Amino acid sequence: MTHLKPSDLRPLAVLVAAALLCSCSKAGESGAVKTHSLTLADGSGDITSLNPHLFTELTLGYISELSQAYLVKYDVDNNPYPELATQVPSLANGGISKDGKTITWHIRKNVKWSDGAPFDGDDVVFTTKVVLNPNNNEVGRDGWNLIQKIDEPDKFTVVYHLSRPYSPFLPTFFGSAGANPDILPKHLLAQYATINQVPYNSKPVGIGPFRVVAWHRGDNVELEANPYYFRGEPKLKHITYRLVASIPTLATQMQTGEVNLWPNVPSSYIDQMKAISALQTDLETSPLYNHIDFNVTRPLVSDVRVRQAIRFAINRPELIKKIAHGYGVASESVVPSVNPLAPKDIALVPFDPDKARALLDQAGWKVGPGGIRVKNGQKLSLFFPYFTGSPSADSIVENVRQWLKEVGIDIQTKQFAPATFFAPFQDHGIVYGGKWDMTFFSWQSTPGVDISNNWECNQIPPNGQNVTHFCNKQLDTMLEAAKATYDENQQKALLDKEIKLIVENAPTIVLSNPQVGFTYSKGLTGFKPNAWTPFDNMMDVDN
To answer: Could you give the CA distance from residue 415 to residue 421 in angstroms, rounded to a whole number?
Structure first.
């Protein structure tokens, strides 16, 4: 299961199944007549909302790329391009003021929402106020809280006045990468005091090449070509996004032709997908990172030596070799290698059970009955929830269980459906609720260098996505400095220091930067995904 962040690697599984025999051509096979329809799934299962302001799971991010309203999207090379803005603000074009504290958005004219209503700067101003309204259950407001004043000199110009420079304004301010909020239609939502429980959340109206037709909970989300999209209509006329909750089931559906496209095929299934002659599998370096998190405020893992010991005890290269079939890179960095600004000189902490035992001894945890360590009469037994639906996740957790047992640590696991596991703090979600010692999933990074949403003290849930509850004033100072400069060299130097501090304190253990597959029927044409937003550019895709 993969979780998007207003950073996300919002987590990510062998199956031999008999194909259903049919005398007709499978959908998308070479020689088949194009239906101009597409069925896709990612194996994450059901979702709890279609409003990205309130929920950040990967599936919703993809659906939003297809259908929702953003000022800026990303091209095949991961570069931002203007969508509902007419230019990407910069110092060079004057969109960013010389002092870095004013950002001017020039809004595209003659644009309509997918219900035919006109779009203009009023919608941008309205949605900005929605994000800033503390009564709305926004996933996070980092960056937004710097907006001191909003000017709208005309219906197609919106000016943000910030209290200080904010270099990650993209993708934070209505950019499609990561799990950032989209622009909402004022004409539909201005009547409500909050957006938390409104019909819109089940059938959003957006501005994209497709529009949502229906959400069949637990089954699929239907989309159709948007007749009002300002760039024209896409070649595809209908998309069904299946909410498949089982990776093995999805693999079978790809084999039988029931599903035409599987984004982010986990590494353990890449070889299987490559072996199916009717399918094409392209390998991509992922902006995801798989990781184990600690809630550092929980007593059993509050001692950094315990967290460091657990890292020494886990054989991460072996996980990549055995479970990921070699499709991954061992790393300590929470900024994946696909990002050109990612640190390159951070040494990998080795697998060393003896060092793990020594650190646990130093921390006062002594081996007790049954080999499990004890301190002050309490066993070193950690609560470890994770998500359902992925055999690879099950395998990772069971390997971790065995390695930790060998150094005297017990884990008590419990699985939850992804929709519950990643639900917002306000809806008693497991990850954001924080009532755990360890957990496992993936985050998707953003194209820039800002990692504050996961690591600043003021981003601990319900205020943001710092689910580790790690709070370090030195790190906070660096994170704020990185956000305050538009100089890329300064940003990179600060990022290097940030990552090294996180590695030293071990609030998280990066298991790998994975390689993933994009598997699709060979009849599918025009699909050219980028690393962060694979469904931003779908106008020429056909099936």
So the answer is: 8
* Residue 234: φ, ψ to 5°: -75, 165
Q: Which helix (H) or strand (E) holds 492?
A: helix 488-505
Query: What is the largest distance, in Å, between two alpha-carbon atoms of the chain?
Result: 73
Half-sphere exposure of 456 (CA within 13 A, CB side): 22
The label of the residue with tokens 């950073």 reads: 7
User: Per residue in 27-85, pLDDT tens?
Assistant: 344 456 899 999 999 998 889 999 999 987 889 999 999 999 999 999 998 899 999 99
Beta bridge partners of 3: 57, 443
Which parts of 23-90 are beta strand (E)? 37-41, 72-74, 80-82
pTM: 0.79
SS3 content of the chain, % helix, strand, coil (to 5): 30, 25, 50
C-alpha distances out from residue 45 to 144, 212, 241, 416, Å: 31, 18, 11, 12
**Contact call for residues 76 and 537 (beta carbons, < 8 A):** yes
Instruction: Confirm if 19 and 258 have CB atoms less than 8 A apart.
Output: no
CA distance linking residue 101 with residue 146, whole number of Å = 9
> Could you give the 3-state DSSP secondary structure of residue 134?
coil
- Read off the tokens for 350: 């080795």
